[in-house]
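Predict the 3D structure for this chain.
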Amino acid sequence: MTVNHQLPTTKNERVEEVFDLFIKHMQEFFEEAKLNHEEYTNFVNWADRLGRSGELPLYADVFLETHVLQAMYTELPGTQPSLLGPYYVENAPFLEPDENGVVELTQREDEEGELFYFSGTVKNVDGEILKNAEVDFWQNDASAKYSNFDSDAPDFNLRGRFITDDEGRFTVKTFIPVPYSIPDQGPTGEFLGYMDQHPMRPAHLHIMFKSEGHETLITQVFFEGDEWMETDVAQGVRDELITDPVDKGDYKESHLEFVLRKEN
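Done. Predicted structure below.
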């Protein structure tokens, strides 16, 4: 009996180009590192554990994505993107603003934390106001947990979508997020241990902006004075996205401007 091992019929030149570069630089890495066979075997075994544990996306978030984004966007106008992160959930509920234009993020009646009003203005690189832009907003709670993941909070807690007003503005009523540790009990944590690197991320808000005719912007907002900001394990902090909330007594507030790039 003849077995026919059919090969792919369509060549993808871009895939070939990228993987040729990947192999080339991996080989150069091994040459430069001058690994002995035991070290090489340990490296391969660690990479195998990384894959089997399901932590490859986590590892890529921490050590690769920031550098990819910087290579893509640093020289371009507009707000710099940051990591999507592993805790994004699609189809968060749409929220309507109150009579004062404030959107209250979905939350428990006894939600703990420091009350925070965060406002923003959304424009494009030509300075045009982007009204009716969709804003997708999520964050952790006072226990450093994200809803829909390792949390006892209801689904979509501290998550929500809404649109900007006719002036491209929005205001969210929420709570100051808190720093948290990325998962560090598996191969990614093992790698951090080898590097004597802590697993902490500074407190941040996640925001995704969508507006017709513009590139989707995924970014994060950080807080002045956070002890982990200078050594963020994911290196995701952008200076232009650091906010310094103003203390208003029983709440804090701050404002940032976000600038979207037009689609090519």
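The mean pLDDT is 92.
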